[in-house]
Design brief:
alpha/beta; 337 residues
Length: 337
Amino acid sequence: MNETSPGTSPASRPEPGQEAATGRIVLLTTSHRVAPGLLSWPAWQALRSADAVLCADGTHPQLPYLREAGIAVAEASPTAQGLVDACAGGRTVVVVAMGEGEPALTDGLARLAGSGRVAMPELELLPASYDLPGARLLDLVQVMDRIRAECPWSSRQTHEGLAKYGIEEAYELVEAIEAGDRTELREELGDVLLQVVFHSRIAEEDQDAPFSIDDVAGGIVAKLIHRHPHVFGDEQAETPEDVKAHWLRTKAEEKQRSSVTDGVPLGQPGLALAAKLASRTRTAGLAVPLPQGEGIGYELLALAARAEADGVDPEAALRAAARAYRDAIRAAEGLSS
């Protein structure tokens, strides 16, 4: 079976002139991620021209909209042979598939077609609605909502209790990126996304200032549009430097910070913190000498500032050197890296 051609074997394909007599079966699939009733024009055409429309699930979300449009839908679960018989005389039968499809029915039709003993109707898989990009995020929100309600562990979690996992997942994502492992990268991106959805679900229950995943998404959408006037507005940006200038200007307008150090998280790793402070200072055009002092801390501060000025991420550079050190240790132990 496929979307465009009859799903019959050469042995069971009707002889010329018989095709009209064997009829047509249309398996209509829909996506639960698209609002019920929003069907493609070919789907509505098939439904309106069908001799019979069947659905095994009387609670299927599409049924009220089909009936409102004047489509008579019978609640029935025919066998493969019964469906073939229903098409006798050139009739067209549309089957509105359930969420998981109709595997038992399609398997039965495939067996009949493969037997070579049955004159099969034309078989067509007709997608009536398609998922938009990002539609699976709706599934994630739905699954997270159920887990929060029913899982003994997840239902007791708080923002504070989950904070450490956010840090761990972020580091694992960075490790996957630096290792160049595409499979791990996809998985770690999912784990980071889970943290966002989990925290958003917890936030819905706050008594004083609740917000949802839609509020989170709406906020970042508004921020991205505002900070990209060269994409969504009339300003021009020809180079990455132009884009950065737009970003910094709009960010400064939004935050109304009194110091370039405002908003720099002091809890981040030391090298990253030092590099961020150096970047803020350099971008603001401030001439601030590095503090002088005794000890390795001041030496590391100077190295981090020098790396940032040279366009090098000191954290990434140190991790790369540390991995090389790890490999050397394993080699000395007679182990492979």
